[in-house]
Amino acid sequence: MLDQRFKSSLWRAVCVLALFAAPVVMPAHAVGPNDWMSFNKPNTGAVDRNFIRRWEANPPPGYPTLSPGNIAATDAAIKRYELIVKGGGWKELPSDQLAMGSNGPAVEDLRDRLKLSGDLQDESWMPQHFDYYLEKAVKRFQASNGLAPTGIVDKRTRAALNVSAEVRLRQLKLGLKRLKEYTRHTAKGRYVVVNIPAAQIEAIENDRVVSRHAGVVGKTDRKTPLLTSSIHELNFNPIWRLPPTVISQDLIPKGRQMQRAGQSVLVKYGIDAYDGEGRKVDPEKINWNSSRPHALSYRQKPGEGNPMGFLKINFHNGHSVYMHDTPSDSLFGRNFRAASSGCVRVQNIEQLATWLLANQGGWDRSRVDEMKAKVKREDVRLKKPVRLYFAYITAWATEDGVVQFRRDLYLKDGVGRDVASY
Prior knowledge:
- By secondary structure, the chain is of the alpha+beta class.
- The chain has three domains: about 30-165, Muramoyl-pentapeptide Carboxypeptidase, domain 1 (Orthogonal Bundle); about 185-240 and about 305-420, L,D-transpeptidase catalytic domain-like, CATH 2.40.440; about 240-300, no CATH class.
- Helix content is about 35%, strand content about 20%.
- It is built from twelve helices and 15 strands.
- It has helices at about 1-20, 50-55, 70-85, 105-115, 130-145, 155-160, 165-180, 245-260, 265-270, 290-295, 350-355, 365-375; strands spanning about 190-195, 200-205, 210-220, 225-235, 240, 270-275, 280, 295-300, 310-315, 325, 340, 345, 380-390, 395, 405.
- The strands form three sheets. It has an eight-stranded mixed barrel. It has a four-stranded antiparallel sheet with strand order 5-8-6-7. It has a two-stranded antiparallel ribbon with strand order 14-15.
- Strand 1 (about 190-195) and strand 2 (about 200-205) form a beta hairpin.
- Helix 3 (about 70-85) packs antiparallel against helix 7.
- The chain is globular, with a radius of gyration of 26 Å.
- It starts with a helix and ends in a 17-residue tail after the last strand.
């Protein structure tokens, strides 16, 4: 009898030691482009702002958003979320900030929430303690929700966690419908997609992400439009012809403000004004409080202050929008990147341009860099236009089983403002 008790005690001790020694078993995923989500490095504690800026500005490639392989994966995700909703969903987390080392009931609630969404499969013997495995699960959740994977449950992460399972299910169903509309044309060949809610641009070749770029999309009151077109031309060091929206909502109000201070907006920003006959107008003779500024056209020469940077990417559309570089790249390091007048700014546009020009002959990265360095004007028409999609996909799953969500930036999903507010 004593021998049996000893063996039983020994077995319990071995089991406890095994909990410390065994690696966490995360959801099974195929080896592929989302391997960067393994997150093996522990968090040191404080939020690393430089890491967040680098992550936001340089999104990892991952799987194509519009891949045909995402259809079956998204359908499977819908079935999973239907079961979650049927089971009552998940509990809303309190307002506490949680991180490695935190303790308490809120940590256990977080653990239960991440188990339901499949980000955590660890059965901890200390469920109210925020350990390394829970931190990895938080990072996985953050990355698949378009947030920098810090492992810290801050205000933004908590808001994303607290979006109800019912809302996420509705988003997935909308996502599946939208994916089906696009993926009839995206299985083969080359194309570029701008996923507006993610503020990201992908260059795709034969259903593989060649490069993924952070973008800046339109403000909520100057939305980037949904469209399908083809990229047909690149303008190196372009002259910026100010669009009507920028003239009426930005230039003229700024002109009035600076005129009151005895300054000229055109002189300060190196912008030229032209009348209806194409004649250049003396900037000192423009009364910004009159109706005349509305009748003029405006251009800005290439250079350091040109808001299009060194490159403009053209495609036919009825919205007067385009993709372009920018001399100010600080916005790329932010999570919320809806700040343009409808056009799309592209981080590391040199890489995208090199890919677009791959079949032109004589164009490589060094030549693209030279165009930028020497501020050389040149327009290049593509021999074979590249398909382009400005899409609006807020929820989808990839073929490795990872479910992706993004904020409903322009409230197109009809699921409430909570999904747009983090």
